[in-house]
Design goal:
Layout: H1 2-21, E1 29-36, E2 39-44, E3 57-61, E4 66-69, E5 76-81, H2 88-101, E6 108-114, H3 118-128, E7 134-137, H4 143-148, E8 151-152, E9 161-165, E10 171-176, H5 186-198
Parallel strand pairs: 5-6, 6-7
Antiparallel strand pairs: 1-2, 2-8, 3-4, 3-7, 5-9, 9-10
């Protein structure tokens, strides 16, 4: 009987140690990088850097299918995260990228990511005539938010950031907009995308 008890105690100890080792680490918190309405926001998630392989992520497309982002494969990507398409600055930014998309060539794709529900994104795209870029929702998985470090702790929305990914799948440009109420500087984003697209 004692042997059985000792075995059970040992097994439970191993199980507890295993579970402790599998505990999910709290997300990285970064403060003081962005503000919203004058208030500093805390960003959750990993920091991405120029020269690194762009993280993969999954989101929900407007038709409710799961979208998987796989960088590389000879295509340049502009990833634009915004708090909500139903706000003036985000609407302006996304419509601007849609307008210039056709000037960048077929080897450049643009994806706008937000926490808006897919239904809301689809409605917004229809209302604004968005045809040249893709909008996807991070509401279900928070995959993009965590991988690219743009989840605002205070409100659960995405910070305004633009990332350009080269043909080889590596990040070549990052612009985290300090004031969420302001649009990004478009010129360096488009210059980086065009340069990457023209590269062999």
């Amino acid at each position: 009987m004692k042997i059985v008890q000792r075995f059970l105690v040992a097994s439970m100890s191993v199980l507890l140690l295993t579970l402790a080792g599998c505990a999910v680490a709290p997300p990285v918190q970064r403060k003081g990088l962005v503000t919203l309405n004058g208030q500093p926001m805390t960003l959750l998630g990993n920091t991405v850097h120029v020269g690194e392989k762009a993280p993969v992520f999954k989101a929900v497309a407007n038709n409710m299918t799961v979208f998987h982002f796989q960088p590389g494969h000879g295509k340049v990507w502009i990833l634009s995260s915004v708090p909500s398409l139903d706000t003036p600055v985000c609407s302006l930014e996304t419509r601007h990228f849609n307008l210039v998309a056709s000037t960048l060539g077929k080897n450049v794709g643009i994806i706008t990511i937000s926490m808006d529900l897919p239904f809301a994104q689809k409605r917004w795209c229809g209302d604004k005539g968005i045809q040249h870029i893709m909008t996807v929702s991070d509401y279900r998985f928070h995959s993009f938010a965590k991988a690219y470090g743009v989840l605002m702790k205070q409100n659960g929305l995405l910070a305004r950031q633009v990332v350009v990914v080269g043909k080889n799948g590596k990040i070549i440009y990052i612009q985290l907009v300090p004031n969420i109420a302001h649009p990004p500087h478009y010129a360096p984003v488009l210059a980086a995308a065009r340069q990457a697209a023209a590269a062999p």
